Amino acid sequence: MAVRARSWRPPPPPLLLLLLWVTGQAAPVAGLGLGSDTELQIERRFVPDECPRTVHSGDFVRYHYVGTFPDGQKFDSSYDRDSTFNVFVGKGQLIAGMDQALVGMCVNERRFVKIPPKLAYGSEGVSGVIPPNSVLHFDVLLMDIWNSEDQVQVHTYFKPPSCSRTIQVSDFVRYHYNGTFLDGTLFDSSHNRMKTYDTYVGIGWLIPGMDKGLLGMCVGEKRIITIPPFLAYGEDGDGKDIPGQASLVFDVALLDLHNPKDGISIENKVVPENCERRSQSGDFLRYHYNGTLLDGTFFDSSYSRNRTFDTYIGQGYVIAGMDEGLLGVCIGEKRRIVVPPHLAYGEEGRGNIPGSAVLVFDIHVIDFHNPSDSISITSHYKPPDCSVLSKKGDYLKYHYNASLLDGTLLDSTWNLGKTYNIVLGSGQVVLGMDMGLREMCVGEKRTVIIPPHLGYGEAGVDGEVPGSAVLVFDIELLELVAGLPEGYMFVWNGEVSANLFEEIDKDGDGEVLLEEFSEYIHAQVASGKGKLAPGFDAEMIVKNMFTNQDRNGDGKVTAEEFKLKDQEAKHDEL
């Protein structure tokens, strides 16, 4: 219950029991008689195991009773009216015997009270109800005790080991509660509704006793708050479940706490010693996270999906608190980001995130880059003679280790025991690798860092390279075979014979078949007079050269069809 109560009014002036009867409110009294009918007698028929408080003169009590004569005839009962009898004790509002009989009672205690006439209605009785000189029996069950001097009582029965913040005035809280009367009767529960009670504290949204009782609580703390009626719903109750003059007991578990003025909070868990670069607005991040509420309730995790969360930061792709909390991180950093609801999902929440919830993200930054990034090259070793540098068209053999920025190994030629061989500039590797292998000499060792737009992009390689991943290649160049000039697949190392066609056409029939052409080209390469482009299938090169010369496609080349490169600029052969 968290609505505001009407202001408390003082109890009505003391009334004689006779007046209470005349106005229709029963006036219970006390006495159990197993002996003389001239003395007050009390039998304690049930006493609860716990009795933190007993009735004293001046206390206000709520109790049920059944009033009978000694022969068992009932003359009155609060149960019949479905309402407790509510009265101050020791202030003359009750017959004398009941005033005495209630003193010392515990809540939930049951007493059988026998009251002699001198402590009840005496020789006059009550006309039409109680005959003169009547002994009265009352079966009394005490429901509630309070005193006008009472204050809110707080009993904390669980407090978390860590309590970095407590509730202050104007904070917004989310808590669960069970609301009971002093006798333990449940009147309300947020648990039954499966929804927390969400409210501001100290600004009049709650009954005054709850406003006071919540102050100083930690998230995760559990406490019992006992509130006298004048700090709750007063003499009128709430008109539904809570009767007038009822003390209330709230068993509260605090789940969440924030203030509308809060910003995010950041706790650095692990910061790498080497942090060459920190994230900025516009960067693209890949990170893992566990998402919980302030009380530790889990709501989401990238780990459970076995995939990082990938996003731009500072551009509104994520909630405002995360946009801010992800700025300034290092690769490999772990931090906790606490985001108040006004920088998260607000009053409405989303999915399994309740409205007005503070969110806690434990993140691990795997990598980040900026779309404007190019490759990064760091040379670790160069041999003394490093004059011949790799260029487009060269055939390279190299070893590499490929990893992610967080050090996760993806692939290694060393582990496979064989080099990786490519023709530079031929599209056989990703663009960033092609760029990273240029101007490298044999024996050199370098690290090449490749952003995803120059690597495998958003898609990555299924089962091997995550999407949008920055790649790190540690490379050692082992062999370099110089390539041919751009556009050539075969070149002569010396002067070209003036009778080239005739040399190829060995049988002199004026036609060159593929077999003759291939035999001749391979012979020139073997003798060092010619050179095929390294790194490609020699037979495929020769076949393509022959096809380009066979202009009419009849499977043979004539002298009229045969031309050299400078005579046919668009072909790559000869």
UniProtKB/TrEMBL annotation:
Q: Where in the cell is it found?
A: Endoplasmic reticulum
The terms under GO molecular function for this entry are:
calcium ion binding; peptidyl-prolyl cis-trans isomerase activity
Q: Which residues form the PPIase FKBP-type domain?
A: 58-146, 170-258, 282-369, 393-481
Spell out the InterPro entries in the cross-references: EF-hand-dom_pair, EF_Hand_1_Ca_BS, EF_hand_dom, FKBP-like_isomerase, PPIase_dom_sf, PPIase_FKBP_dom
Specify the enzyme's EC class, one word. isomerase
Enumerate the catalysed reactions. [protein]-peptidylproline (omega=180) = [protein]-peptidylproline (omega=0)
The keyword Isomerase appears for this protein: yes
Superkingdom of the source species = Eukaryota
Q: Which UniProt keywords apply?
A: Calcium, Endoplasmic reticulum, Glycoprotein, Isomerase, Metal-binding, Repeat, Rotamase, Signal
Domain EF-hand, residue spans: 492-527, 537-572
Q: Where is the signal peptide?
A: 1-26
Classify the main location: endoplasmic reticulum
What is any one GO biological process for this UniProt entry?
Answer: protein folding
Q: Which GO terms describe its cellular component?
A: endoplasmic reticulum
For this protein, what is the EC number? 5.2.1.8
Please explain the role this protein plays, according to its UniProt record: PPIases accelerate the folding of proteins during protein synthesis.
Please give the name of this protein: peptidylprolyl isomerase
